[in-house]
Amino acid sequence: MALTRRQVTVAALAAVPVALSATGTAQAKEQRTLYIAGDSTAAQKYSDAAPETGWGMALPFFLRKDLPVANHAVNGRSSKSFVDEGRLDVILGLIGPGDVLVVQFAHNDEKSGDPTRYTEPWTTYQDYLRRYLDGARAKGARPVLATPVERRRFDAQGNAVTSHGEYPAAMRALAQDERVALLDIQALSLALWQRLGVEETKKYFNWTATEQDNTHFNPPGAIAVARLVAGELLRHRVLAPRDVRRLDAQIPESWITWPSSASA
Asked: What is the C-alpha to C-alpha distance for residues 77 and 38, in angstroms, rounded to an integer?
């Protein structure tokens, strides 16, 4: 059945969120949300995993209070499995005009022995990442790509070395082709680990009495990486100076909390 122009207009207005229709676009942008799609390096952790900490848990400390972070990153996911499990659809059901979607994947895309997660850097990895870009744009949100944060890995001479193969380069190329902001967290974190050195970096990763984890962070590591992310969001003008705070301030580790998984 064909709709009249008036019916189309009424339907469109009905789909506009109440906050936007009542207050206007300018104020709606003041209330925007920053979404994260990613893997365990960014994800929310719970009390049974402490002191393991995702950088997404620390990002709010660097943003103004009324710019909430919706952290949808999940342990073990790749750009492919996150989509295949319907997790991107959940974000796209919530995200709206003025919001930001930060996308960081590669750690699990690299697992060639797992067809549910593996993507090839220059083909399927880019193809899946485009789904995030296209989906966010269709909702009026701004997509942002973030290269994967580096693992703690050093050679015999004490030089920090890369661990993500062609994935960061493939993401950089995609960002250029799609004209989206790129937060080069891979390069920045590699430089940070190099400055800190072999021993000092242990204080930033999830090294405990029973575990030597060179991929996931403890509170200082999550705070350090979140600082990089916030700085890049500001540098690329994804966020304005008034959106960002404490970039040069010391963030107490005690600010990190791990809720009970039962309340998640």
From this structure: 7
